[in-house]
């Protein structure tokens, strides 16, 4: 059984949103209907489903059923298989063929290719089919010119992109084969490139990249350093072959990266005698702007105004995530380090790939949402909009900061003890060892405690044996902190967290509205519920357009079939979250979505701001709850699920519900 055909079939099924007949599938894949049925019953094919299933219905056809996680794993396998088109047993031959074609300016005969590869014409024919299939993914083709031979055809920028990826694919394979990867990857990669280009080109390209690091006072990440060398080698070789880049990006003459690109241009022209045009100069500038770098010093970059923006950003993030990030100077430095070049990239419409994006959205959903909804102030100040790849990289900085703060203690505690310094020290150390949440900020005798204001403490641990005020936040313990004492402290912490949730659930419950709907596309849903928010007085005119604009810049589709569209905070009058469950999934930026949380939250509502996000994150991160929500029949059931533990508070009255439903129905007619 052909594994490539399995891959084609599974990719085709993933792209369908409904049942499709076996005949249509067979026609699309140029095989028989019997082959399709044999394939889906094949054990190897079933293993590729990663736990998913194939559903067959009479008169309807075939459909693949997979979760978002399973789909992610399948696509990962498909991508790995795409690389295997090159990294196969005949990889050396296929690479040799592709590199040979990349370096040609005139058609080359198949006989000539066969002679250079020491293979027969028929073998070369098979290799050419594989090479053409891979090149097609870059919109590049192998043209056969009658009586002359074969030649690459396509946009020059696309050919160079394929060339660069080929350099890295062959590099990965050589590392895997030889096991030679170690800390000095830069040198090994240069050795690898020297087998593709001349030693002189590689040497001078590497020198130009190192010179640019010095000029920028920054060091490229390891991968981007290697990428820069490969791109410059390709640029020089293609220029020397008489190939020129088409319409290039335009950059201001005083842009720092363009000035550094000018130095690279002068170096390459003087050492390699390559005539580099203005378009190629802009291309080098583009290469530099797409790199990620580690700055040696940021003092010359971060203005007072920029610091204030980053401070405001971390403050809003702290409220959203219920984590204090305001004092994390390392985070602020890293954000400035990342944002400085990222803002430039957005200004010039330059996008960089983030291979971890899907994983970030799935594993750190709450952080991704928080960043996506908190970055508005910086975007507005810089007149840009970050795309989802940049948002993903910013998330990684936040994840690192949260991990650093994981050991910080949040419950300020006072220890009241009359047993002397030894027992006091013992109790303090044991309490903080057993309970990572507690920070024992003060230890004092009962008499001293009577003279202070205890309101500044969240918890009082009383080992004195005598009564103290504020019994609701007091736990009585013994001098040796026995197991019963520890259970009492743990019970108090859990009860306090529960009460905090209940108190704020009561205040935000009326601001989370639930709907079940049959809207069949993304645009219609945004307009319908945006209009509802406007009519109900939650948002100002223009909110709908701000949601649509945000979607154009960065998709709000997340993992688990969820999307979180949101608009400008400045246009929100009253905070609200709309939870909309769809009867059937819809396509939302290449993902199938059936549960939407439309967010309209006013950042100035500091009292409730982070509780809105806390509740939203609680819902989205609970896979069991999400699955239950997706199987309910009435919108009211969603509310009961989400506030199931909140037994002491009434649901909105039937009058209010019918009023909201009536107004929502009215909004659909606009």
From TrEMBL:
Domain called PRD: residue spans: 301-408
Region (Disordered): 649-670
Any one GO biological process: regulation of DNA-templated transcription
CDD domains in alphabetical order: PTS_IIA_fru, PTS_IIB
UniProt keyword terms in alphabetical order: Activator, Repeat, Transcription, Transcription regulation
UniProt cross-references to Gene3D superfamilies, sorted A to Z: Mannitol-specific EII, Chain A, PRD domain, Winged helix-like DNA-binding domain superfamily/Winged helix DNA-binding domain
Key word Hydrolase present: no
InterPro entries: BglG_antiterminators, HTH_11, Mga_HTH, PRD, PRD_sf, PTrfase/Anion_transptr, PTS_EIIA_type-2_dom, WH-like_DNA-bd_sf
Ranges of residues in domain PTS EIIA type-2: 506-645
Name used for this protein in its record: Transcriptional antiterminator
